[in-house]
Design brief:
By secondary structure, the protein is an alpha+beta fold. The chain has 10 helices and 8 strands.
Length: 258
């Protein structure tokens, strides 16, 4: 058993956690709107200009969750998970490699690694704790949650979990269509906060979202697979749910009463 002490979310029609919580409780109050990406305060202006959308969105979510938890980012180990990484940078590199010169910008190459968001976050916040970056296609959120929960229980220390996905440009978008950007962050703690347990669920049916609009988002954006958990955290009652994982590796989640 562990707990959730801080929450953040930025997604379509979900501009911040307090607003999102109200709309998640009453899905009829939600309307589809473009994701608003706030400027991360931890990044200097020059770094904000250089950072891609995926990095800015992930860092903004991490920053907001730490503020909600009242914990210093420098104290936290982190797990960053994403199905897409930085797709705009991937597109730009593919374009460069398709030219006769095949010259790739050193900056593009540096930012092509999957842990660029985690690296940017830890440099900006001077966090010296361990960091893990991973991907598991549509199961990326479940993989990140399992990793963060295991670290929190084993180390008996808080862990920051960040999940973020943004759309690919064309022509990659036609192969891997994501309609919008979505990011969330949770600060998991070994004691206190909203009680949470995570256990294997095998092939158990996954929990659908309340509200057709949220259910569409859940199925369309890998990071939004977290929406049933976010709906549970937005409410006050205890909840049991199943989050989609890799085949045969779904996660059963118990959320304590708020």
């Amino acid at each position: 058993m562990l707990g959730v002490k801080g929450v953040a979310v930025f997604g379509p029609g979900l501009p911040d956690w307090p607003t999102a919580a109200a709309r998640l409780r009453e899905p009829s109050r939600w309307t589809l709107a473009p994701t608003v990406v706030p400027a991360p305060a931890v990044l200097p202006a020059t770094e904000r200009r250089r950072a891609g959308l995926a990095v800015k969105l992930a860092v903004a979510a991490a920053e907001a969750a730490c503020a909600d938890a009242g914990l210093s980012p420098a104290q936290l180990a982190s797990v960053f998970t994403s199905s897409t990484g930085d797709p705009v940078n991937c597109h730009a590199m593919c374009e460069a490699l398709a030219t006769p010169e095949r010259v790739v910008s050193p900056t593009r190459f540096t930012n092509s690694v999957h842990n660029v968001a985690a690296g940017t976050w830890h440099i900006a916040t001077h966090a010296m704790s361990a960091s893990t970056s991973l991907a598991a296609f549509d199961a990326s959120f479940a993989a990140g949650l399992l990793e963060a929960a295991a670290q929190c229980v084993y180390a008996r220390a808080p862990v920051l979990l960040v999940a973020c996905d943004v759309p690919y440009p064309e022509p990659l978008h036609g192969v891997r269509p994501l309609p919008e950007s979505f990011a969330l962050a949770l600060v998991l703690v070994p004691q206190g906060g909203r009680a949470l347990s995570v256990t294997p669920a095998g092939d158990a049916p996954v929990t659908r979202c309340d509200g057709e609009g949220f259910e569409r988002l859940r199925t369309q954006i890998p990071a939004a697979r977290a929406l049933p958990l976010l709906q549970a955290l937005a409410g006050e009652r205890a909840a049991s749910l199943v989050i989609e994982g890799l085949p045969g590796q779904a996660l059963a989640i118990e959320v304590g009463a708020g």
